[in-house]
Each structure stands twice: as structure tokens, then as C-alpha cells.
Design brief:
By secondary structure, the protein is mainly beta. It folds into three domains: 91 residues, Immunoglobulins (Immunoglobulin-like); 95 residues, Immunoglobulin-like (Sandwich), CATH 2.60.40.10; 168 residues, Galactose-binding domain-like (Jelly Rolls), CATH 2.60.120. The chain is 4% helix and 46% strand. It contains two helices and 26 strands. Strands 17, 18, 20, 21, 22, 23, 24 and 26 form an eight-stranded antiparallel beta sheet that branches. A four-stranded antiparallel beta sheet has the order 6-5-8-9, with no helix packed on it. It has a four-stranded antiparallel beta sheet with strand order 13-12-15-16. The longest helix is centred in the C-terminal third of the chain and has 9 residues. The termini are far apart.
């Protein structure tokens, strides 16, 4: 038996979309073989359709043909570029998608049998899609200034995967070049650009969104100045031991939080069934804290599970009460871990893993006074236990 596979591949960059059809061709003696013929099936009939964002769904009555294999739609997503969409005879509809506008389209439906014979086309004129979802996202897409960079934000109500592309004008050539891009299905999107190291210098930026078929939204242009941001010197960080703080495991000490490597983790002891548990550390110098990054333990058992925090609060102060009393501390961030896909523990999409591996970046109110000490309390972990582990902490702000 010979197996021939035909693969139709689409976008990506974004997630690949492949439709694989297998046709089985047996020799003359094969049991149950459908004879090859040149007789085309009758066309589909009673065609109805309804519009979807950037596409349409077609329903029809299949012809009475014993070797019918599938129904094919032939159309043009873009002028001069022919595309196809296929539905099994066991499906009750055929979906066409990927149109980049709401202009009237012409779609031809064919019945195809196991010998590869095509019926006469059933022409469906004036198929008018609804507005593609990418344009709703593009309307909400915007850039704003950020600490050490810029930030893109958008709303993606459909949850489809789109590319967000940020550009910067090159001072030498005067051309806009890609600065960064991300692929996301997140409905309330937020994308930091610049890796926290962009200088506080005015620049020309632009942003647009793109779908899997290459359709792009209108490019939006901005003149922005990243806010001053520098990394606090980890070499002068030190642990502070307050009476009501958690006990850190001796072999996984607090200093591992700022040793510059994710391989060495910090862990607190459990066994008392008490949560939340808090830890405190000294930045070494006072400064305005604008952003704090936590990196979680990288391990297959800790990706959106295990002792990684789900709910954590961050506090700061310039001077602390040595009794551990909370009246000297100001809450500066209330963190809840959100898994992009929402899938159960142990099931992760590429976006889930990307976000977990990147850790969490907390943006702090820039109007808060200077602080020298940070304290964080973990209320809940993915394992719902009474201990937690964190790999690294990095603090950014203005410590001039």
C-alpha cells in the first residue's frame, strides 16, 4: 500500500496551521479497493452560508456518490493568490477564513471523489465576511513610555494568535526597522520592549499587528522617551532576619536570590502549615524602586506548579521596625500568577512556557518615596503547600 501525504501549511512565525490529507492507493488485488474512474461526482447543492470575522461558514447537501471523499472551497484571500479549504464528507460544514477585508468574495465549492475527480463548481458569489478580528486588536493597540524602554498594550477579544511588531526609526538611514515582536493569544496584552536598558533619549517608534495570513493593521507612529532606569547593584544586597519572617533552608540560602544565576534557588522551610510566609532583604542603598523581577525555579515539575508563587505581595520601606511589625512597611505590589492558556497543571502551551521562563516583572508606582528595604509575602503556591522556592530577584529604578 502506498501512502501519499499532502501538507498545506500557513502562517508562522505564529503557530503553524497544517491540513494533512492522506490518500490510500492499493494495487488491483487489494481487498475492498475502490476502482479508479474518470467519472466526476455531482456538485454539492442547497448551499447556504453565514459570515464570520474574516471568513464564512458554508453548509450544503452532498451528492449521492459512493466514492465521495471531501468538499473543497477555492477562493482568493488576496488578489491573484488562490487558496483552498477542505472539509471531510463527515463534517457538516466547511470553514473559509483568512480574508483581510469585508469586500465581496467569490467562493467555488467542489465535490471531490477518491479518484481525484472534481465536480462542476458550485459558485457562491458576493460572500461578504465580517470585519477581521485583527482590526479590532489594531484599534486598541498603542505604545507608551516605560522605564528603560517602551510598552505595547492591546485588547484581543477573539483570543486568536497575532503578531505584535514594534519598530524604531534608525537615525542613520531614517528607515523604521523592527525593534521587537511577540506572538500572543492573550486577550489583555501587555508587552515590554527594550529589555530595561534603553537610554532616556527621545526616539521615533511605530507598532502594528499582523495575522497568520500576512494581513497587517495600520501602522501607528509615536515619539517617546524611555524613562530613566538602572539596575540596583546586587553585590551590596543582604538578607534581613526579622522575627516573624520565614526560615530559609540552610543549603538554599537567601543569597541565592541575587547571585546572578538561576541555577541556584532559594527555598523556605515548610511543615508548619502556616501561610503567608515572608522574607526581607536590604538593597544596600536607598532609591526609587520602579520595577522588580522575580525568576521562578526552572524545572519540569515547577512550570506552573510546585512551589512557585501564585499569590504574593511586595512591600518596601526606608527604615523598618526590628520587631517585624508591619506598620513601617508600604504595600507596593499585589501579584497573582496567571497562566496564559488556563490549561490544567502539567499541560502547557508554548506561550505558557515562554511566560514562565521569563519570570514576572512588577511595575511599581513611580510616585512612591525612596526605599532601601524590600519584603515579600507568599500567600499561595501552585502546589498549595506551606513553603516556596524562588530562583532570582532583580531590582530596577533610580538609585543615583
Amino acid at each position: 500500500m502506498k501512502i501519499v501525504r499532502i501538507v498545506l501549511s500557513g502562517f508562522r512565525a505564529l503557530a503553524p496551521v497544517c491540513l494533512i490529507l492522506s490518500f490510500l492507493s492499493c494495487n488491483e488485488e487489494s481487498v475492498g479497493r475502490q476502482p479508479v474512474d474518470g467519472d466526476a461526482p455531482d456538485p454539492v447543492s442547497d448551499v447556504t452560508w453565514y459570515p464570520t470575522p474574516g471568513g464564512a461558514v458554508f453548509r450544503y447537501t452532498l451528492p449521492n456518490d459512493k466514492d465521495l471523499l471531501y468538499v473543497k472551497a477555492v477562493f482568493s484571500r488576496d488578489e491573484g493568490v488562490e487558496s483552498e479549504s477542505i472539509a471531510s464528507i463527515y463534517a457538516d460544514s466547511l470553514v473559509v477564513e483568512g480574508f483581510g477585508d469585508t469586500q465581496a468574495k467569490e467562493v467555488s465549492l467542489y465535490a471531490v471523489d477518491r479518484s481525484g475527480n472534481l465536480s462542476l463548481p458550485e459558485l457562491v458569489p458576493d460572500v461578504i465576511p465580517l470585519t477581521p478580528n485583527i482590526y479590532g486588536l489594531g484599534h486598541s493597540l498603542e505604545l507608551s513610555t516605560d522605564f528603560g524602554g517602551i510598552r505595547a498594550k492591546w485588547m484581543n477579544e477573539s483570543g486568536e494568535e497575532f503578531a505584535i511588531v514594534v519598530l524604531q526609526k534608525d537615525s542613520a538611514s531614517g528607515e523604521y526597522v523592527t525593534l521587537d515582536r511577540t506572538y500572543s493569544t492573550v486577550r489583555n496584552g501587555d508587552f515590554a520592549v527594550g529589555n530595561n536598558v534603553m537610554e532616556a533619549v527621545e526616539g521615533d517608534f511605530a507598532v502594528y499587528a499582523q495575522d497568520r495570513w500576512g494581513h497587517s493593521t495600520e501602522t501607528k507612529y509615536y515619539i517617546l522617551t524611555p524613562l530613566f532606569l538602572s539596575e540596583f547593584d546586587k553585590s551590596i544586597f543582604s538578607a534581613v532576619s526579622l522575627p516573624n519572617d520565614a526560615t530559609v533552608m540552610g543549603v538554599l540560602p537567601m543569597q541565592n536570590l541575587w547571585d546572578g544565576t538561576r541555577e541556584d534557588i532559594m527555598a523556605v522551610q515548610g511543615g508548619d502549615m502556616i501561610m503567608p510566609k515572608s522574607l526581607t532583604f536590604d538593597l544596600g542603598v536607598p532609591g526609587n524602586v520602579y520595577r522588580v523581577q522575580f525568576l521562578w525555579r526552572i524545572d519540569p515539575d515547577w512550570e506552573w506548579r510546585g512551589g512557585s508563587p501564585v499569590h504574593m505581595k511586595l512591600y518596601g520601606c526606608a527604615e523598618y521596625d526590628p520587631t517585624g511589625a508591619w506598620n513601617s512597611w508600604t504595600e507596593i505590589y499585589d501579584y497573582w500568577s496567571v497562566k496564559p492558556s488556563g490549561l490544567p497543571k502539567g499541560q502547557n502551551t508554548a506561550e505558557d512556557l515562554e511566560k514562565f521562563n521569563a519570570g514576572e516583572m512588577f511595575d511599581i508606582d513611580p510616585l512612591l518615596p525612596k526605599m532601601r528595604y524590600l519584603r515579600f509575602s507568599v500567600y499561595e503556591t501552585w502546589a498549595a503547600g506551606d513553603n516556596f522556592q524562588i530562583a532570582e530577584v532583580t531590582v530596577y529604578g533610580d538609585n543615583r
